[in-house]
């Protein structure tokens, strides 16, 4: 690992849950995080993975917030199973109600930042990611070199709140977000106990954990999110929006990768001799065989509201002799009519036909 001196200035916080198991986390630690000397792993159950301790960050939540709170039903069950040595019964996502995991997750982020300061104080940067996130270490260090950690930076991929709550934008946790050392220091020195003060409010408010970070930073530290899209990605490779604006840009995070994908990205980055991956490398690694023209039962996200185009009746005159105009005027009629609708739309590059 190169840049050892720079690496020692960055704390990496990893959020996971007991129900996720340790397989993906294990791969993450030996691939994209292998150059991180002391990654901080935070969960809802205290465990050990190799030389790494997994910290039970929910143990720091205020007792008043936990008492008689259904958000902590799963947490209490986990602790009871741990006492009798049966915690492995929970280490399978199909055995756990995912809404219970989400409710419990909301309380983690603020306490993660406070515990990270206690365990690794005075770092220049604090980077928060999930256990299934690929983190390009070379790209991260290069990116952070352009920012002054002595200033209060909150960097992330903006997500807009749907109900108009302030702040209107917060750093989406799935993409990861970054806090400067100055901001984390001000948080823990000038606003001690900040996380505990929000614990009780979470009982009454439907806030997500990543939104709560943005709210606390704005209300208490007067710091707003700085947009660093697209280099922090909340998407898995199959859903990354590849285009001419992203193709040659570095990718710092990719989300929802399994162990095989984490290793594949790591192998590509290792072969580049210290250069970080670009989005074109993500594409070439994920689609080394290219895209097929047609595939059944394939969700290419064409129906997604962010990509959908208005569909108008086809113009048979533009078929140029390649098509039988009969039954092609209605774009929804069949596969060929749908393909013709895409060809006739200047902005269309893919299509999807849904049949009952």
From TrEMBL:
Pfam families documented for this protein: Fringe
InterPro entries: C1GALT1/C1GALT1_chp1, Fringe-like_glycosylTrfase
Span of domain Fringe-like glycosyltransferase: 103-186
Cellular component terms (Gene Ontology): membrane
Molecular function GO labels: glycoprotein-N-acetylgalactosamine 3-beta-galactosyltransferase activity; nucleotide binding
Compartments, as annotated in UniProt: Membrane
UniProt KW Translocase keyword: no
Pathway info: Protein modification; protein glycosylation
Its membrane topology: Single-pass type II membrane protein
Record keywords, A-Z: Glycosyltransferase, Membrane, Nucleotide-binding, Signal-anchor, Transferase, Transmembrane, Transmembrane helix
Family as reported in the entry's similarity comment: Belongs to the glycosyltransferase 31 family. Beta3-Gal-T subfamily.
PANTHER family in the cross-refs: APPLE DOMAIN-CONTAINING PROTEIN (PTHR23033:SF40), BETA1,3-GALACTOSYLTRANSFERASE (PTHR23033)
Protein name listed in UniProt: N-acetylgalactosaminide beta-1,3-galactosyltransferase
Species for this entry: Baudoinia panamericana (strain UAMH 10762) (Angels' share fungus)
Taxonomic lineage of the native organism: Eukaryota, Fungi, Dikarya, Ascomycota, Pezizomycotina
């Amino acid at each position: 690992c190169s840049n050892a001196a720079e690496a020692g200035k960055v704390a990496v916080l990893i959020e996971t849950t007991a129900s996720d198991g340790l397989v993906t986390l294990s791969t993450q630690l030996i691939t994209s995080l292998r150059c991180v000397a002391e990654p901080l792993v935070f969960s809802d159950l205290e465990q050990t993975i190799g030389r790494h301790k997994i910290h039970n960050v929910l143990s720091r939540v205020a007792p008043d917030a936990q008492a008689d709170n259904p958000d902590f039903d799963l947490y209490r069950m986990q602790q009871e199973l741990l006492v009798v040595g049966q915690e492995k019964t929970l280490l399978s996502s199909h055995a756990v109600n995912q809404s219970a995991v989400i409710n419990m997750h909301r309380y983690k982020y603020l306490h993660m930042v406070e515990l990270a300061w206690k365990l690794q104080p005075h770092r220049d940067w604090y980077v928060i990611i999930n256990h299934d996130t690929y983190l390009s270490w070379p790209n991260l260090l290069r990116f952070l070199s352009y920012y002054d950690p002595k200033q209060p930076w909150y960097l992330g991929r903006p997500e807009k709140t749907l109900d108009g709550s302030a702040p209107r934008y917060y750093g989406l946790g799935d993409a990861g977000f970054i806090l400067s050392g100055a901001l984390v220091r001000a948080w823990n020195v000038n606003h001690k106990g900040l996380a505990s003060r929000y614990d009780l409010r979470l009982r009454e408010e439907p806030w997500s954990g990543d939104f709560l970070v943005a709210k606390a930073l704005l209300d208490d530290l007067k710091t707003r999110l700085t947009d660093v899209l697209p280099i922090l990605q909340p998407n898995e490779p199959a859903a990354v929006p590849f285009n001419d604006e992203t193709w040659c840009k570095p990718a710092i995070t990719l989300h929802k990768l399994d162990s095989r994908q984490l290793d594949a990205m790591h192998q590509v980055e290792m072969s580049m001799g210290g250069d970080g991956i670009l989005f074109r490398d993500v594409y070439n690694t994920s689609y080394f065989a290219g895209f097929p023209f047609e595939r059944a039962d394939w969700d290419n996200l064409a129906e997604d509201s962010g990509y959908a185009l208005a569909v108008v009746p086809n113009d048979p005159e533009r078929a140029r002799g390649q098509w039988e105009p009969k039954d092609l005027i209605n774009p929804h009629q069949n596969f060929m009519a749908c393909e013709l609708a895409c060809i006739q739309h200047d902005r269309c590059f893919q299509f999807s036909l849904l049949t009952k």
